[in-house]
Amino acid sequence: MNKNRKYLVTAALPYANNFIHIGHIAGAYLPPDIFVRYKRLIGEDVIFISGSDEHGTAIEMASITEKISPREIIDRYHFANQKAFKDLGINFDIYSRTSNKIHHETAQEFFLNIFNKNILIEKTEKQLFSEKENRFLADRFVTGTCPVCGYEEARGDECPNCGSNLSPLELINPRSKITGDIPLVKESTHFYFPLGDFQNDLSDWLNGKKGWKQNVINYCKGWLKAGLRDRAISRDLDWGVKIPLKGYDGKVIYVWFEAPIGYISATKELFIERNEPEKWKDYWQNKDTKLIHFIGKDNIVFHSIIFPAMLMAHGDYILPDNVPANEFMNIGGEKLSKSKGNGILVKDITEKFSPDVIRYTLSSNFPETKDSEFTWKDLQVKNNSELAGILGNFVNRTVVFAKNKFDNKIPDLNKLSPADEVIFNYFKSQSGKLDELYDSFRFREALHNTMDCARAANKYFNDNEPWKSVKTDPEKCGSVIRVCLELCHSIAILINPFLPFTSEKILRILNVTDKDLKWQNIGKTVLVTGNSLGENMILFPQIEDSEIQKLEQQLEDGESVKSAPTHKALPQGIITVEDFKKVSLKVARVIECVPVPKSKKLLKLKLKIGDSEKQIVSGISEYYKPDELIGKLIVVVNNLVPSKLMGVDSDGMLLAAKLNGELRIVTIDGDIETGADVN
Ligand SMILES: [Zn+2]
Predict the structure, then answer these.
(1) 578 C-alpha to ligand 1 centroid (Å)
(2) Whether domain 375-521 has CATH 1.10.730.10
(3) pLDDT in tens, 568-616
(4) Of 62, 294, 406, 452, which is the most buried if we count CB atoms within 10 A?
(5) Among 78, 21, 75, which residue's Cα sits nearest to residue 52?
(6) How far is the CA of 163 from the centre of ligand 1 (A)?
(7) How far is the CA of 147 from the centre of ligand 1 (A)?
(8) Pick the CATH number of 1-120+194-372 from 3.40.50.300, 3.90.1170.20, 3.40.50.2000, 3.40.50.620
């Protein structure tokens, strides 16, 4: 193991138009978090980078459909996903965003670098142009009739009915998806990256790779065999990184090209935050750094072929050392792909279960070599039989014994018995095996081997029967319990990559800091005789059948597998800004006010709101005389469904505060034009 080696670990940049689900976590986020935590335990220099991918047609399209700005879309998903990762203990050094200024600058520098080397190809091509919008239409912004099957709502890039790949010019009766406008055909220029020019270099580079997963190698070979072609790297969009050249207004760098550069921008940002603005170069421009991209299989081509070719073209950066892509984790047989938007969302599952139970269930079933499946039943079994039954049980029985028989203190350890030697050596040898498994990204097996240590610890406890020796040979009993407490500490180290929250809890139970939480301490004695233990706690409460049955039913009904709109996912009583903005509150002046005949409570008010007037009826006559209100500036809800009160039309509602039989209407402090928005 080379101690001077640096690791630059990245996790795929999630696209900021959806909430993260557990399939994403099992594919590209939990594996690198485990890897990074392990590397830190052995004392290696590692940084862990990710962030939101925030440009592209899908986000611009969503902003048009939802009638809000792209910024509002990306904010919604960026912050929610950042929190979801944090709640699961996915511990990035930085979770950045490609909408940040530093990314725009870095991506533009990258583009100019290869543009100035004359690597890029400029092509003039026919493209659809909307006169109404005064812009060229990117493929997703065009709809029309599919030339293959006749489906009338085909998209400019593909037909959702027959699955044909299309180009906008092939569509019959093309229309702008935004305005319905019939576009013209005009000539437009676009930049292309000549991927084919890098075919040989990529082949050589990939052939020199050892220790890559077979699925990744096979996938790359398939692409190389088919032959690499030029790829467009510019796009007609408003939302994105602008092409940094004169005469290319309305064009941005294609998102597939700029997004991976986000790894570089995020690293720069991290070290700016740390006040070492040049240090990012120690990672990206240092050939002793191992760059490792963790991704799902849908991203293999970008990270094993396209991005490496881009890095070769630029020339100042290292190439990936490994791309340990995972397959997919399925729920009920359906692929959890982010484009489909189904799956169990992280923000939902973390409300129900502790992060370590989720981490354990996903890790034990990582889709490392083939697709795997998640079930609620499996989560219950993993929690109750393995986490509680083996790991939790060992810690609990040891600590309870120390509490009851040794005054909650750490007993002395005499000379190690042969059995003690055996168990400590077993732990040490397991840690060696684990080194190999971690370095070859075999985390499922690593978890299994980790749990074998907890199994062996339970066996040691049983074989040494401290409940017998406590009566016959208290000193020997003390030694056994001390060994068990030391094993608890070793287990806290061993499980740390997978179960960081539990690891921390065990340290608290042992009443020690994390200063000895180092890989080299596995199978060693580090505790201090006579020190008090902390408070015991149940690490893994049982999960009941009824709870699991409820979740299974929900999954069947499709409830928790759909990507819910934001407001549905929020705690009860909490609304979003969008929710609040649905209410139109306006400043109004009371210009007339009279009682409603035959009513004890109602007043009829005529209001001036900007250029218009409206009438509302309000139940306030017990508190105000009509004359008192005339001339006042008040606040009304201006977009209520009109109603009738005692046969009188009311088109809105005024705001008032009411408590304990007292009522005061909300008025405006000072003067402002009527019709002003209140928000
Ligand atoms: Zn079709």
Answers:
(1) 36
(2) yes
(3) 345 556 777 777 878 889 999 999 999 988 888 889 999 999 888 999 9
(4) 294
(5) 78
(6) 6
(7) 7
(8) 3.40.50.620
